[in-house]
Fold:
Amino acid sequence: MRRNRQVILVSRPPQQGWLSEENFRLVETPLPEPGEGELLVRNHWLSLDPYMRGRMNEARSYAPPQSLGEVMLGGTAGEVIVSQHPGFRPGDKVVGRLGWQEYALSDGSGLRRVDDAGIPLSASLGVLGMPGVTAWIGLFDICRTQPGETVVVTAAAGAVGSVVGQLAKLHGCRVVGIAGGAEKCRYVVETLGFDDCIDYRMGADEFWPALKAATPARIDCLFENVGGEVFDILLGRMNAFSRIALCGMISQYNSAPYPIRNLSSILVNRIRMQGFIVTELQERWPAALAELTRHFAAGRIKYRETVVDGLAQAPAALIGLLRGENFGKQLVRLI
Amino acid sequence: MRRNRQVILVSRPPQQGWLSEENFRLVETPLPEPGEGELLVRNHWLSLDPYMRGRMNEARSYAPPQSLGEVMLGGTAGEVIVSQHPGFRPGDKVVGRLGWQEYALSDGSGLRRVDDAGIPLSASLGVLGMPGVTAWIGLFDICRTQPGETVVVTAAAGAVGSVVGQLAKLHGCRVVGIAGGAEKCRYVVETLGFDDCIDYRMGADEFWPALKAATPARIDCLFENVGGEVFDILLGRMNAFSRIALCGMISQYNSAPYPIRNLSSILVNRIRMQGFIVTELQERWPAALAELTRHFAAGRIKYRETVVDGLAQAPAALIGLLRGENFGKQLVRLI
Structure:
């Protein structure tokens, strides 16, 4: 008889410290059977995302914390194998938040059927999923970016940043990425088509002149995924009436907060800075996905995935993601 | 023959340090004579405002710096004494930006005629002038405050803060002020009618519990005039989907910037923070002044002025304002 395998959160990492593989445990459980109105999904792909680190803390945040002893929360893409639900049939490909497990029972809520004809299923967790929609909403709804403006995006080689920059280029903007390491920067410019990319691992003394050279007209839209010291420097390069879409602060998730000194730029430059959570803006997903799918089908958006095989690798892969070891979208393939 | 007296900026204070009276010089000059299309104004009141400190630096800001050797820039209220301009007659009361001087020549640009029947002329530099309009725009256009929300305003006993709180009360909000010293807090609650006021001079250990008690439903709108350590603490008390109108950072104008650690609150709470400069939003002044005048005429807005007599006192009064020694609107009466 088939069994399910799940990853459970068994302990919390220190509030301002690094998580470790010991915070997780892989368990085997009986395969659940769908009752009336339910369906059983075989998850093929698990999405790893920076926000997961925040959920592991007990502190008040925009979402309740991940419970101890429960299956880790997370986005998934898979296939319906048994259905007692009128809206789904076996063979349907579905994207949802079914967590770190190979099989999952669902009542259909929060499940989105996807057409994977010509589109790899994993893309529905990346460029055609939450990260892609995040990029679109941050760029167009939060930053309200206009053609001709200068857009800077941090974590430029990541799942969100890579889409931000490509959408901004398609929109007629000058686009500068910030990324960690020469290889990522080369990819961002040569493959993704950004105008420039700055390696934040160079010294702070070199970073500022490089930033000035890359943004001769200063920054009109900053799509911020990282926070910390680089963000503080970028604040000093903002334009009058510029906007900051605060999407993430990955550099701050496992450490004490970096103290920000350039906040007066918000006042001096009349900046609008706004934090946002893409899952709260469901009414904008259809428009975002329609445009992303159109660009994707026409070959105008490129993407890259970092894939590890097997549920047991998920904890290490999440730690790697938080350390910036991934390239593009970090996925776990559930073989 | 009558002479004009002017205060000139003769040297700049250190970029991150205090200004001193030595940065200014009082000079006597010949009284100018208006030519065709010009008018001569006798200034009766000089407005002292925190933004003046920023203009004294040479650094890039939203406005060009105050030039050395020139009359200090600043708002004024006075009376036309000679006019060769078709739009003004002797006896007209006018508000403008005629600078730190007893008499000023003007071509009428930027000059606003005010009706001082029943309204003290000095009020057109305070509650019915730039500070009042700043309060109105920050509260309604930037924060978009709704009835029932909790509004917190710093420098609550100042020219702007005192109007912010009273407008918010008239709008049906819970209003908490932050001010320096027990006397100011008493005034804010007992005279201006705020729901509560917290003295930031109490220790940081006491401030947080006092803030929590005063804002049981957290903060929906923060009208920020001060910046620094108190602002950092307030960031930790913001509500989901709250707004911050960043109007000033007076605590930061004469010192190295205080490092802000709670910026992740912007992300976690999906806050919109926006800097604004009231003089750039001229299209909103008529609506703001109309509502302020209506409330003022009905006795619903109270105000207080701190007045020094004579142009020679202006430098010391500006230093006092930046130290928080004033109560309400700081003015110089040009006797």
User: Anything to note?
Assistant: The longest strand of chain B covers residues 39-47. Chain B touches chain A at residues 54, 60-62, 227, 240, 246-249, 252, 257, 259-264, 266-277, 280 (CB under 8 Å).
